[in-house]
Amino acid sequence: MDFPVMDISDSPAGLAAATHAACRDIGFFGVVGHGVTDDVVEGAWQAASEFFDLPMDQKLSWQIPGSFYGYSPFATEALARSRGGESAPDLKESYNLGPIHLPDSGVVWPDAPLGFRQTWTAYYLAMEGLANRLLGIFAAALDLPAHEFTQHFGRHTSALRALNYPAFDRPVAPGQVRAGAHSDYGSLTILLPGPGRGGLEVLTRNGDWMAVPPVDGGFVVNIGDLMQRWTNDRWMSTVHRVVNPPAEVAATERRQSIAFFQNPDIDALIEVLPSGGDRHYEPVVFGDWLRHKAEAVGG
After folding, report:
1. Alpha helix (H) ranges present in 6-64?
2. What CATH number has the domain spanning 7-121+155-295?
3. In the chain, where are the structural domains located?
4. Full-prediction pTM beyond 0.90?
5. Dihedral of CA 225/29/141/206: which sign?
6. Which of 11, 12, 73, 26 has the alpha carbon at shortest distance from 212?
7. Which of 26, 113, 153, 233 has most Cβ atoms within 10 angstroms of its Cβ?
8. Quick one: residue 68, left, alpha or beta (phi over 0 = left, psi -120 to 50 = alpha)?
9. Cβ atoms 261, 159 nearer than 8 A
10. CA-CA distance, 77 to 146, in Å (whole number)?
11. Are 110 and 97 in contact (CB under 8 A)?
12. What residues are paired with 159 via a beta bridge?
């Protein structure tokens, strides 16, 4: 299977058929023509890299117990647990930031590195705009009114997460990888992956793992579990993972990525869209859905 890449500078109507096919067949695609400027991307990337290079005691000061947000130390999360069963912790650390526009969201801004807040704010707002454009394309792909999805995102709870997969020179547990096999929880994810081996893989419909290729000047987008539920299984939220680098470079090869998780309003009632068949899911309040999913991966 070829990995689909779409130029979204075209009109939503012109992208409808390709978007529908990508979301139906694999749930992942690349986007170019997105309009996000290089300085916004490079600023957020540099700030994230410098944050992870800080001393551990400094990073731990931005840990927020009992919260989805803040600093998450190395090997304290196991994404594969969100699908049930046991899993060794993931070989990563992360910094997670909630919606920056809501006064009660509990946003914590690190005071280092210099300029972190400014560069991440610019990136968050760029991703917010891009995600809304994608929702319009999704509506066109399903032959729905343009506002069908965006009306549920007026006070959205989208999150920005930087991930650092350090190089490692010690044995790992059987099956332990940089990020265990999982699917995302929300509506869609916009990923900026870094270079290097040991990267993102998606599970195709025929049960094979496919490496996601670099998208030059672009982002990787995937739909989440909520969108699969919303579309009554017309579209698929694909299981994916981040694998370890080859043994000969594991001690020297670090990887980094930044993910924007687009989520609706915390009190949005998500009801499946008409699909011409039986309804597969009952209505769900997004906040309840997210809490159940997120609590499964910790500890």
Report:
1. 12-25, 38-52, 56-60
2. 2.60.120.330
3. 7-121+155-295
4. yes
5. negative
6. 26
7. 26
8. alpha
9. yes
10. 37
11. no
12. 261
- Per-residue pLDDT, 226: 95
Q: Which of 90, 97, 26 is nearest to 242 (CA)?
A: 90
User: Which residues of the chain are under the pLDDT cut of 50?
Assistant: 299
The token duo for 257 is 């990525």
Which is nearest to 203 in space by CA: 79, 28, 30, 81? 28
Nearby residues of 235 by Cβ (< 8 Å), 6 or more positions away: 20, 23, 24, 27, 223, 227, 228
The C-alpha atoms of residue 12 and residue 139 are separated, in whole angstroms, by: 9
CA distances, 69 to each of 131, 252, 272 (Å)? 20, 29, 29
pLDDT of amino acid 211 = 93
Could you give the CA distance from residue 210 to residue 204 in angstroms, rounded to a whole number? 7
Question: What is the residue type of 12?
Answer: P
Q: Is 70 helix (H, G, I), strand (E, B) or coil?
A: strand
Strands 28-32, 219-223: pairing kind: antiparallel
Which residue's entry shows tokens 């729905």? 144
* Omega within 30 of 0 (cis) for the link into 113: yes
How much is the pLDDT for 105?
66
Angstrom distance (rounded) from CA 132 to CA 113: 29
Indicate the pairing of strand 240-242 with strand 5-7: unpaired
- Left if phi > 0, otherwise alpha if psi is -120 to 50, otherwise beta: which for 246? beta
CA distance linking residue 78 with residue 91, whole number of Å: 9
